[in-house]
């Protein structure tokens, strides 16, 4: 349930309600808005009578929350959640671009791509150190060596890092190196991993599973939040349908709907969502128009040489063009976006090419 306090209710009145709910065994979460304070209570509703709470000083009304997800609900937290990663705000007025290769392959590949995407306006660097692949014979990532390269590249470029964690045993290791931990679509209902991510003190991107409903997606976020970590970003990356012309069906209606249902920021991954290089740009533009707070795009300095998902990656030149096209769309929906002015060419090809010692693979 939520307890809505009257406008102008003081701290003493809020504390009295919090104390009463705590004694009744509820988990309590206070959200202070510009005009009113909302107190969310998670627990057995039978432990408290709404009429009893209604009589407490400063209480305007008591409202039951019918959705199975509580902490992720906009009823509990009416204002948008903004997640801070360094000097980047995710969920604020800026649409944040996260870009980089599907997989970390080498020091040279990562550094060259990172410098290029930063020059074009990316605010975070993406790159997989652990890669979940359908075939056991496909490139699985560099593991901890890949994490070290991501951290090294962050030091060189200043870009915070987002990377995927696949196993409960790897959570502490990935959290040590990364700024945002990504939960992939295949783990959207890995409840042990979701709980483990709830105890880390870093933001978590919860990607929607390829077969999960919107409610199940929000409940995955709820697992993380109920375990103590409220820094959650929701990621739409396409769902499996009968359609075979694209890798997945990118559900942009979910972006608009989830923004109504939840206060959490929403990210779209148009690369995984379509699996096709030529669809990444139009779906990125549509995602921003639909209300996405961030984008996650795969970029490789030479996709033909990529060890993972090369056909869907943008070249650095294509990424620079996309950033120029995205900015006016963001402005049209009242948002901002880093990058060059439309019509101004960003010299992404001019990013410093690593010298020979940097070009080889680790190990």
Helix-strand pattern, N to C?
EHEEHEEEEHEHEHEHEHEHEHHEHH
| CATH superfamily caption of the largest domain | Aldolase class I
Distance between the termini: 54 Å
Helicity level: 25-40%
Please mark out the parts with pLDDT under 50 across 5 or more consecutive residues, or reply none.
Answer: 346-363
Radius of gyration using CA atoms only? 22 Å
Structural class: alpha/beta
With strands numbered from the N-terminus, the spatial order across the biggest sheet is 7-8-9-10-11-12-13-14
Stated plainly, the CATH topology of the largest domain is called TIM Barrel
Name of the CATH class of the largest domain: Alpha Beta
Work out the count of structural domains.
Answer: 2
Mean pLDDT: 89
Biggest β-sheet description: 8 strands, parallel, barrel
CATH architecture tag of the largest domain: Alpha-Beta Barrel
Query: Could you tell me the strand content as a percent range?
Result: 15-25%
**How many β-strands, per DSSP?**
14
- Number of helical segments with 4 or more residues: 12
Please describe what this structure looks like.
With 363 residues, the chain is of the alpha/beta class. The protein folds into two domains: 2-63, Alpha-Beta Plaits (2-Layer Sandwich), CATH 3.30.70.1140; 83-359, Alpha-Beta Barrel (TIM Barrel). Helix content is 34%, strand content 17%. The chain has an eight-stranded parallel barrel with strand order 7-8-9-10-11-12-13-14, surrounded by six helices. The longest helix is centred in the C-terminal third of the chain and has 17 residues, at 316-332.
């Amino acid at each position: 349930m939520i307890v809505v306090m009257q406008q102008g209710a003081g701290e003493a009145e809020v504390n009295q309600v919090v104390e009463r709910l705590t004694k009744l065994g509820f988990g309590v979460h206070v959200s202070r808005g510009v005009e009113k304070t909302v107190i969310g209570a998670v627990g057995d509703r039978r432990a408290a009578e709404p009429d009893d709470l209604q009589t407490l000083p400063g209480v305007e009304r008591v409202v039951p929350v019918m959705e199975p997800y509580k902490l992720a609900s906009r009823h509990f937290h009416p204002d948008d959640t903004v997640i801070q990663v360094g000097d980047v705000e995710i969920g604020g007025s800026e649409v944040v671009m996260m870009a980089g290769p599907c997989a970390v392959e080498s020091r040279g590949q990562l550094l060259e791509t990172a410098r290029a995407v930063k020059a074009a306006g990316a605010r975070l660097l993406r790159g997989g150190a652990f890669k979940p692949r359908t075939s056991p014979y496909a490139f699985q990532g560099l593991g901890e060596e890949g994490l070290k390269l991501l951290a090294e590249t962050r030091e060189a470029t200043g870009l915070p890092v987002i990377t995927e964690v696949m196993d409960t045993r790897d959570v502490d290791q990935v959290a040590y190196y990364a700024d945002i931990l990504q939960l992939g679509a295949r783990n959207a209902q890995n409840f042990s991993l979701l709980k483990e991510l709830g105890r880390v003190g870093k933001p978590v991107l919860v990607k929607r599973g390829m077969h999960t409903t919107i409610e199940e997606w929000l409940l995955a976020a709820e697992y993380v939040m109920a375990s103590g970590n409220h820094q959650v970003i929701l990621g739409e990356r396409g769902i499996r349908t009968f359609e075979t012309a694209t890798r997945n069906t990118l559900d942009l209606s979910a972006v608009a709907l989830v923004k109504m249902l939840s206060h959490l920021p929403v990210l779209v991954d148009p690369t995984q969502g379509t699996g096709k290089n030529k669809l990444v740009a139009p779906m990125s533009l549509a995602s921003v128009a639909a209300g996405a707070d961030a984008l996650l795009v795969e970029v490789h300095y030479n996709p033909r040489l990529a060890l993972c998902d090369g056909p869907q990656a943008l070249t650095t030149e294509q990424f620079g063009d996309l950033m120029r096209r995205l900015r006016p769309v963001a402005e049209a929906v009242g948002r901002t976006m880093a990058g060059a002015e439309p019509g101004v060419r960003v010299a992404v090809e001019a990013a410093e090419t690593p010298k020979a010692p940097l070009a080889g693979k680790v190990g």
